[in-house]
Amino acid sequence: MPTATGSSRPPRSAVVIGAGMVGLATAWSLRNHGVEVTVVERRHPAAGASWGNAGWLSPALTLPLPEPAALRYGLRSLVSPESPVYIPPRPDPRLARFLLTFTRNCTPRRWRVLAATFATLSRHALDAYDALAADGVAEPTRPAEPCLIAFRTAAERAAMVAELEHARAAGFTIAYERMDGDRARALEPALGDGIGAAMELHGQRYLNPGNFVRALADALRKRGGEILERTEVSGIRDLGPAGVAVTTSGGQLRADVAVVATGAWLDPLVRPFGVRVPVQAGRGYSFSVPAEGAPTRPTYLAAQKVVCTPLGEGRVRVAGMMELAPADRPVDPRRIQAIIAAARPLLRSIDWDARTDTWVGARPCTPDGLPLIGPTGSPRVYVNGGHGMWGVALGPLSGRLLADAIATGASPAELAPLHPLR
């Protein structure tokens, strides 16, 4: 079978565009195949969604974003800045088309199909992290034993239990236990009296995402990979058997293949190569609070869609919200206040006024919720992106799968439903 160069010769060189978790994991795996790799990044490693996210490695919760419950929010809630899911009102035909297709995927039947795909990926997600650790990436992942999912009422918990049981039916391996509010507070004293029900979720992990991505970048450099920071990419040309030419602000780069891993900025670079699945920025917000009085373990306020993650160094990250808005739009302070307003009644002693590291990042969402991983209309131009909220959870695995496909010419079966030209 021909490889990415269009011949029996495997590629000897690659340009990877984007130095987030997904791009760097792809570059790392290509180096493991002996490919010379240059990573091009418009800012610096871990500058985007790979820095400020919640840092959960939670295969049990890596579920499709299009879900039947999404249709119950209603238009009024979607245009409220206090809503967990917010669409700033504006005339945007592209967003309207995205939402129409997204809505068509929010059916129980379609969700089951999508969930089965995620179940296949999730089985190997933590193994991919273990492989990175064994291969020399120094930053650890930490067991979250247990993750705590907290609710105001047992009725709120019942909705999550139903979702997890549907996920089990789709092939997920999920271990959880129910508990009442008193037991939850004994396990996590930061929880307030407003918590009336909870769940322990077992077998998950977490990490400091910024530290991990920087450690991956350092390890790639030590292995001979090059990272060009503060370098913009404006286009890619397919040169046929001669490979590709990548036009950057620092000059032209030549290689056998190119991989586009630019997150929410995928569309302009890959559309010329036939990729028509749109990628919409689903912006998430986060900030850090002092660890004193904050949860000591990964804790999820499920109905409020607020996540707390201990990062070490005396800080706990508080993250949440989904905002469908342009990727480069500035922080909306109302969204930070909405997170605080949602979490304050349920967390006993957090010093909200001492928050730091206020951040907004653009998570790359597709209308069917599935990543775009594989070749484009050019056999020398590849995509790895569109992971939505799961770029950190699935990045090392998708990087390994794509690198295997590029280097060997044989695409792993897991990539079939993720084809960028679907």
UniProtKB/TrEMBL annotation:
Keyword terms of this UniProt record: Oxidoreductase
InterPro entries according to UniProt: FAD-dep_OxRdtase (IPR006076), FAD/NAD-bd_sf (IPR036188)
Domain named FAD dependent oxidoreductase: residues: 14-404
Gene3D superfamilies: D-Amino Acid Oxidase, subunit A, domain 2 (3.30.9.10), FAD/NAD(P)-binding domain (3.50.50.60)
Keyword Oxidoreductase annotated: yes
Matches recorded under Pfam families: DAO
The protein's name: FAD-dependent oxidoreductase
Biological classification of the source: Bacteria, Bacillati, Actinomycetota, Actinomycetes, Kitasatosporales
